[in-house]
Amino acid sequence: MNEDYLFPFPTFRPKQDELLKEIYDTLSENGQILVSAPTGVGKTISGLGPSLSFALKNNLKIIYLTSRKTQVNQVLRTIELINKKFNLNLKATGFTGKSDMCVHKKKPNSGIQDFCNKKVSSENCEFYLNYKETNGTIPKELSETFAFNMEDYISNCESCGYCPHKMSYNKLRFSNVVIGDYNYFFQKKIKDIIFEMGTFEENKTILIVDEAHNLPDRVRSYFSKSLSTQMIDNAIKEVNDYIQIFTKEEEKNRINNYLRNIKNFLFANSKESLKDQIKDSHEELVQKTLFSDLFKNFKYQTVVNEIKIKGSLIEGEVNDDEFESSLMKVGDFLDFWINPIIGDSFIRYAKYKHILTEKGEDDFIGSINVKNLDPSKFIKEAVENVFGVVMLSATLEPIEKYQYDLGLSKAKVKILPSPFKDENVKYIFYSGESFSSKISQRNDDGLNKMNNRILDIVNKLEKNTIVFFPSYDYLNLIYKRFYSEINHNKFKIHLESSEMSKKEKEEVVNAFENNKDKVQILFGVSKGNFYEGLDLPGKKLEVVILAGFPYPPTDLVNESLEKYYFKQGISNAKEYTYIFPAIATSIQAGGRCIRDDEDRGLIFLLDGRFYQNKKYLPPHWKFEYSPSLEDLKKWFEEYQLK
After folding, report:
1. Is residue 16 predicted with pLDDT exceeding 60?
2. What is the distance of C-alpha 301 from the center of its chain?
3. Residue 415 needs a FRET pair 20 to 30 A away by CA distance; which of 172, 227, 292, 601 works?
4. Alpha helix locations (H) across 323-371?
5. CB distance 379 to 361 below 8 Å
6. Angle at which helices 16-28 and 43-57 pack, to 10 degrees?
7. In whole angstroms, what is the distance from residue 299 CA to residue 288 CA?
8. pLDDT in tens, 478-487
9. Residue 510: how many CB atoms within 10 A of its CB?
10. CA distances (Å), 189 to each of 185, 204, 308, in order?
11. Cis omega (within 30 of 0) on the bond before 550?
């Protein structure tokens, strides 16, 4: 059976053999399957093994999509294990972000696309120029670098003088498997490059989507567009940087006038909308006719066409398939604004914000947005021609919501139980105390209650701990109190920020993995940098505290989404919009605590809304109510004596 499904390990985890067979049988029927499998089931090999086995027998290729860079290496390592176990020569190409794959020593921490564009267009990137000379081949010195580790592959490319990101395109046509972000399939421009360079055919491709609960929001973003004051500034700068594309001065002036009119409009409306507001930001729905007055002396489509033509000429100057002109982005937005596909499943809205400049002066910025509310149609259309679809996640429950959002109402469904013993993990709820991250509870009394309970847990248990908060604002309110009261000689405190660099994240993980001198405590955010994809087994992480229910914001978009769900006949539209996403986030965050069969850990649920919505939590999340911390400490000690 192991050979039938290319399973390289000696034993199966509970129900894993059933899952392998179910996936293989689904592919045999040209089918689609949704798999909800808790942490520890072994989703990577369960999806990849039977898919590879079937693909090899039927001359198919595989695209494996993941939202996590760390998962790219995990898939590559799994393929390497399969090769060694079954004496195969499977080849794979992995893609991570351009910033990760760029080998320039002085690359910026942000804005990698602009950095790359300038290097390429000025013919000032030796790695790109060397790649161009390969003409789609793999040079001899790299022919053995179908490396099953992205770091090794990137290092090899750097040593040989080639751009790792571009060289990966050359590898595509030799590969059985391509691993990358969701946009490598669900964004048409990138997908077309992958399929052309890899000589892929849709009806001969198996699509595997990991962490599929993230896919709806990502596809929503792909079919949404925004036009901001910053984008306008970038486009104006681009017009002046590429002045050679204009045959007449009046052409340049006319396009600059279009752009300045839009920017002035955004500024004026920001200022007007916020002048009587207490808040520093404001959102409002707007009509399709919004731009009519801006171009009143010109036909709308004439303006759009002229902007896009000049944007296209700028892209031609750069001569890189991946380069996107800022001017073209403006044109694409204006074109999309009147696109017939924008119906009830989209909203048009403006967002205005008041800021202070570096000099302390008032300024106003704004954006006009088209937001997709329903990704199901686009996902369904994107996957309908592939040979088979396998979507996996630890958090696809309630399954009916994800069947709807993913547009896979007819797909097979496989829901697996947790493979871990119930006695290895405890889910703690303090039923007699009112903890909550609600806005109404963010007074001194509410904040002190939450802080004191977190302090109590950390001080009594003395275990490596992650505390997840629903927002950075709430995190910072608690952190100020916590930091001033904790014993810094015993505990090392790490603080997540929205601007953390890759190096800073790695330093946090390294501290949990290797620092033995102090107990490690991380204050993080649900849906932040550490809530999924973080593997810290054993004593590296033994306690997770969910300090608040990660309720999505009740903003204009979510209010519109709830109304949309209701119009589609979904009676529990509020749960679809707010409760189910909060539950999915909590499951992912809580899952950081138990990573293998030998782990023992505690998950504290510090918000009454967990109890109120317990029917939506996984069945293996069995609450213990208000146990003493002394008893929990003994529970750890007894386990360590075994």
Report:
1. yes
2. 35
3. 601
4. 326-337
5. no
6. 30
7. 15
8. 999 999 999 9
9. 10
10. 9, 20, 16
11. no
Distance CA 514, CA 192 (A): 43
pLDDT greater than 60 at residue 278: no
Joined together, the tokens standing for residue 225 give 């567009």
User: Which pLDDT score, from 0 to 100, does residue 640 have?
Assistant: 61
pLDDT of residue 307: 92
User: Residue 393's closest CA among 62, 33, 5?
Assistant: 33
The sheet with strand 388-393 has its strands ordered as 92-94, 177-180, 61-65, 205-209, 388-393, 32-36, 412-415
* pLDDT per residue as tens digits for the range 530-559: 888 788 888 899 999 999 999 999 999 999
> Would the CA dihedral through 163, 164, 165, 170 be positive or negative?
positive
Res. 221: pLDDT tops 50 = yes
Mapping DSSP to helix (H, G, I), strand (E, B) and coil, where does residue 496 land? Answer: coil
Three-class SS state of 83: helix
Residue 74: how many CA atoms within 13 Å on its side-chain side?
Answer: 19
The kind and range of the H/E element at 634 are helix 629-641
- List, edge to edge, every strand of the sheet that includes 362-372: 225-228, 362-372, 346-356, 281-285
CA 389 to chain CA mean position, Å: 20
Residue with tokens 């793999």: 138
Beta bridge partners of 231: none
Whether the Cβ atoms of residue 304 and residue 335 lie closer than 8 Å to each other: yes
Provide the pLDDT for residue 279: 63
Contact 144, 27 (CB under 8 A): no
Beta bridge partners of 601: 425
Q: What is the pLDDT of residue 641?
A: 47
Residue 378: what pLDDT?
95
Selection from 110-119, 385-394, 424-433 with the highest mean pLDDT = 385-394
Mean pLDDT, range 270-285, rounded to an integer:
71
Alpha-carbon distance of 439 to 437, in angstroms, equals 6
| Contact between 404 and 561 (Cβ < 8 Å) | no
Interior angle at CA 14, CA 4 and CA 27, nearest 5? 40
C-alpha Rg value of the chain to the nearest Å: 26
The closest alpha carbon to 611, from 384, 392, 432, belongs to 432
Mean pLDDT of the chain: 89
The one-letter amino acid at 111: G
Which among 392, 57, 382 is positioned nearest to 208, based on CA atoms? 392
Rounded-to-integer distance, Cα 102 and Cα 130, Å: 14
Instruction: Evaluate whether 58 touches 388 at the Cβ level (below 8 Å).
Output: no
Helices and strands (DSSP H and E) totals, the chain: 25, 18
Each residue of 578-614: pLDDT tens digit? 999 999 999 888 888 876 767 788 999 999 999 999 9
Q: Render 575-632 in DSSP notation, one character per residue.
A: IIIIIHHHHHHHHHHHTTS--STT--EEEEE-SHHHHHTGGGS-TT--EEES--HHHH
CB 410 within 8 A of CB 616: no
